Structure formats: C-alpha cells, structure tokens
Amino acid sequence: MRPVTVYDIAREANVSVATVSRVLNNTAPVKKETRERIVALMHKYQFQPNALARSLTRKETGMIGFILPDITNPFFPEVLSGFDYEARKLGYTYFLCDTISTNEENERLYDRQYERESQYLSLLMEKQVDGIVMIGGRVDLAKPDPELTRELEEVAKRVPVLLLNGSLPKTKLNRVSADQKFGAELAVQHLIDLGHRDIAVIGGYSKMTNTQQRLSGFRSAMKDAGLAVRKEWILTEGFSVPKGQEFAAKLLSAKRRPTAIFCMNDLLAIGALKAAHRAGIRVPEELSIVGYDDIPQATYSIPELTTVSLMSQEIGRQAARTLDKMIAGKKVPLFQSIMPELVVRETTAPLSGTNFQ
Amino acid sequence: MRPVTVYDIAREANVSVATVSRVLNNTAPVKKETRERIVALMHKYQFQPNALARSLTRKETGMIGFILPDITNPFFPEVLSGFDYEARKLGYTYFLCDTISTNEENERLYDRQYERESQYLSLLMEKQVDGIVMIGGRVDLAKPDPELTRELEEVAKRVPVLLLNGSLPKTKLNRVSADQKFGAELAVQHLIDLGHRDIAVIGGYSKMTNTQQRLSGFRSAMKDAGLAVRKEWILTEGFSVPKGQEFAAKLLSAKRRPTAIFCMNDLLAIGALKAAHRAGIRVPEELSIVGYDDIPQATYSIPELTTVSLMSQEIGRQAARTLDKMIAGKKVPLFQSIMPELVVRETTAPLSGTNFQ
DNA sequence: TCTATATGTGAAACGGGTTTCATTATGGCT
DNA sequence: AGCCATAATGAAACCCGTTTCACATATAGA
User: Which residue ranges does the record assign to the HTH lacI-type domain (chains A, B) (predicted)?
Assistant: First the structure.
C-alpha cells in the first residue's frame, strides 16, 4: 500500500503538483473551487506529505539534536522537559542523544562518552538537524581536549550549536548557563547566616567547570565571612547518592566534624542524609545540609532538602528559544546567564546553641 | 558554504555519482584505485551524505518515535535508557515525544494528552519514522475511547507500532508488558509471608489497565491467603508523592489501621514513608511498605524501599529488539511478557509481635 | 481602450542521494 | 580462440516534495 503523494492528488484533481503544493503551503492564491477539490482529495486519502522530501528542498527539517550525558540522572529530564515545552511550541521535534557509557560495574566511562558525543554530532549533521543543543560531557570540562573543542567549533560552523550549563573556555560557542558561582554563594551564605562556621563541601568532579565555579563560590562566600576553609573538608570526585553517603560518612566520623555540608548536587545531599542517619546524627538539628539542582527528589526525602534551584526547566526553555533564534539567523547573546535561587526547606537550621535568626 | 555532495565528489574524481554511491555503501565492487581516489576526496571535504536524500529513496530512515507521557517521572527515563542502549546498537535514532500537558496548577490534563499523542502519531508518520513505540497515555486505558484505538490501528497499518506496559483490549497491536498482576502478587505475598493480615493498597488510577491488573493481583493473593480485603483500604486516583502522603495519612489516622501498605508505585511509597514519619509511626517496625517499579529513587529513601522491579530497563531493551524485528518484517509474538521481581530492602519486616519467618 | 497589477496555473528544474539497466573490460576455463 | 561469469562503470530514472519561470486570464485604474 504505497502512500499517496502530491502526484496522486494532482492527477485525480486534474491539476499540476505545483498547485497541490500551493494549497498545502498556502504559498500562492488558488481558486477556491480548485482548492476545495484538492482539500477534499487530501482528506479522502488521508494524505500526509513526506517530510523528508519537503526538508530536502527546503533545507530545513524542524529537527533538533539534544545531546545529554544520562537521562537517568533526574537533573536532565528537568531541563529536557523545559526544552520540550518550548521546542514543541516552536514546531521542533528532537532526537534524544544519550551519551552514557558504562562498563559491567556500571561505572561511567568518560572517554567512551566523548566518543559517543562525536558520533552523535556527526550523525545529527547527516540527519540535517536544524540545530544542536548539548549539555554535560565535554561541555563540562574545564580544560577540554583541544581536539574535542575544535570538533565542536567545526560543527558550529555548519549548524547552530548551543551549550548548556557548561563553558568551553576560549571558544566562541553560544551558551546558556546557570550562574554556578552565584548559586554556591547563595547556598553557603545561607549556612553562614544560620551561624555555621564549620562548613564542608562534597562532590563534583575537579575537572569540571561547574564544580570549579561552585567551589569558587564557596570560597568567596567563606572569605567574605572571614571563615577558614579546611582542605580536608572538601571532598570531590563524585555526583551520586552512594558517593554522597561515602563522603559524608567520612566527614562525620572524623574527630572534628563540620556542622554543615554543602553538597554539589541533590543526589549527594540525599546520600549525606543517609550517612547522617546511619551515624545517628539528626538533620537539621545537629547537621545542616544543603543540596544543589533542586531536582524533584529534593522534596521526597525526610526531611526535605534545602537546595539551590538551578531553574532547570527555565534553562531548557531558554535553550529552545535561543536555538530557535539562532536557526532563524537572528542575533543572540553569546552567553546567557540564569540566576539560581535558594530554596529553603527542612535540612538547614540555625547552628544549635545559637539563635542567629 | 554549500555542503559537498556526491556530485562534487564525482566530478572531482572523474567518475559518475553512481560510483560514488557504490563506495559509500559498498553495494558493488569498485576498482581499488578508483575507490581510494574517492575515499580520499571524501575525507578531504569531510563529506557527509545527506540522510534525507538517502532515506527518501531507500524508504527507511533509521528513525523511531518514542511517545511517553512524562519524562519527568523517573520510571520513564529507566525504560528509555534501556531502549536507548539497544536502539543505538541497532543503528536507530529516535524522536522523544513527551505528551505531558499541564495547566497552571501543574495538574495533568488527560484529554490534552491524548490529543498530543494523536498529533505526534501524525507528525511521526510525516517524518517517515521506521517505527513507533508508545508507553502510557491511551495505552494505559482499560476502556479506551474507540476512536483513539482506531487511530492507533490505522497508524499500525502503515508503520510498526509497539505498545509498552499497557493493553488495549480487543486489538491486534503488538505489546511488551510487565506482568502487572504477577508483580502485585509478588508484593502482597511477601507481606503475607511476613505475617501481615491487614494490608491496604494505595494509588493508581482506576481507569488504567495496569492499576486494574495490579489490583487483581492484590485481590488474588489476599484470597489465596484467605484474607479479607477492606474496601476502605483501597485508595486510588493518584501516582505522585503528595498523593501517597495523602492516602497514607488518611489510612494511618483511622481508628483501625493497616499494618502494611502496598503502593502502586515507588513515588506513592515515598509519600507513604513521609506520612508515617509525620505520624510518628516507625517503618518497618510498625508499618511495612512496599512500592512498585523500583526506580532509582527507591534506594534514596531512609529506609530504602522494598519494591517490585518491573525490569524497566529490560522492557526498554526488549522493545527496541522487538521493534527492530517488526521493521525488518520478521514475525514477533503479539504479546511479550516481562516478569517482575521482588526487591526486598528495608521497608518491610515481620509483623511486630509475631515471628513468622 | 489600454496599460498595470493581481490571480491562477502548469512545465520543468531542483534537492541529494540510490538503483536499475546497459555496456565495456577482464579473467578463467575449455 | 571462444565463451561465460564477473568486475567496473555510466546514464538516467526515481524518491516526493518545493520553487522558479513563464504564461494566461481577470480586474482595476487612468
């Protein structure tokens, strides 16, 4: 059962395909009577224009590639859903490109991930996407392999590319990112306002831009308050719940322990919560914890997480809007910053014994 | 900067486009020397074949449409990641079609959702996808609007359609689903084995197939054990954390309260956990809770959830494999069942005072 | 009445590949 | 030497829309 084409319609309507195309796209006036005849036939046969053929001539597909590192990490569905919302309104459809790559022990293989990104980049170009948005992976690297960056720049010459929540230093690639440093300052300042002086920070990967920026926010907030940062209270290399639990357990079992922990994401904070629970330390009475990202799960825990909202949905929305403009050839700012917001819930409280509020 | 085409390559290599196509696809022997000349040019110009043009003639795109109700619900990323894993290996790329539709109060609008599904169905056909997989939405309806079903059947005539985790009664549409009844039996039987006799069940939507099936599993397990099911201990219409909290709070504040709650998904279970905590009831000592789905978050809670794993990743993988076969025109079973597994963690314990084990 | 402009339409080229069919060159075998 | 299978290649058609260009007709303004 061959699908019906404009030719079929044209033949039966006794017109040329050009006319059919015209009613299809409203691109030139068609006599009312002719139009009706054609429309009727289209309905009769449930005609559906072949998007491939259309895109081939139009040189636009309405398709976008969305490259992310791991859909299973609840942060990404959040930004994706914001992106989806806006992209749909703008008439785009998108390929989801997950670059996660794990070995048997379910550990992340970074090199494979970058390789996947490259494969997807090239695949998406073949598919003639109108634009590409990329989050995580190489985009997060503070010192990216020049080769990886070069490739991205090469792609960006041919099709609009938008980087989310990262920063490739020294490149001219468009970005929309949360202000990570500001977000960290927000979190740490909150802790300081509550009277905490012994603040630890856990998680992140030292090679990632966002980690470095958050760390820098942490340091600057501490410095402004005249507080010392203790090197042994900065535990990095990890972003998962188990890692958070591990880090926090280490912190909490030491002779001297912090009264507050700033976690590089909510997953870590949830892990920290578990560690505190295991250690019999009450949150927030004896230990304040603040997370980062404000994923939905932040409200699932007991107590609910105080955290920094990166406005993940908003990042996604902004991404869609910006990419659309880039595709349309409009000018957009090279860099757009989204301001995080502090969400105070139940895991933070004034330092016990004091009453700063 | 017009992208280079086979014509450009052909001209410079002094061959016809047919020959270029042949080296591109290895579809007929080409003299070694000629081949090398062409390959060299391809590299020189970083030639990337236009997938649209290719698909137009080949009548296959390597594209799949994946329709789901809400990527923000952690169950779906699990399924999706399994699907992604396998689909990528098989050389497919897929459009993510999220049909969620909410009003200002962030409430789900079902009718709009079905409408979205229809839009996507038609859009995907225009895009010439090789196949469609669909999960949630109308697929979950026990008594679907005949019109919705008819549409699906119409689509399935033109392109392979695979339904996940649902059942449209009386249709000949291919499906792969977890055995929901069996899963529920597993959960309830576990509770019964622990000595519980007063078992409540919360969540789900009474109009959904999976809810009905799980309920039927619950009932059959209760009946086999000679236990009565109390109508006021079956609270439905909801799948979220707040709903779980609400349902559980109601249950726990009654004069007579259950000693165990079977939740229709993990989100509800997390909500129940919160309600118990608020009510000062210890889990699992005073109340056992079992969830359903085994989303990653099931291990984030304190205590960790005992739950029924639907093998979500496995469902996704199976979907990809099956759809691939359907696309290839191979025969596949109309219905494939995936067996859930019970995952015992920390929210269930023997009924206090007894020691059944 | 005669341009000027808008309306209505078709033929043909185009987009960038693949595939069929025909043709020539080549090698192996009797 | 003669024949056949295979290698190697090109011309042209095809996939299914869109777009350009040309042309005919109609309407309006001068």
Answer: 4-58
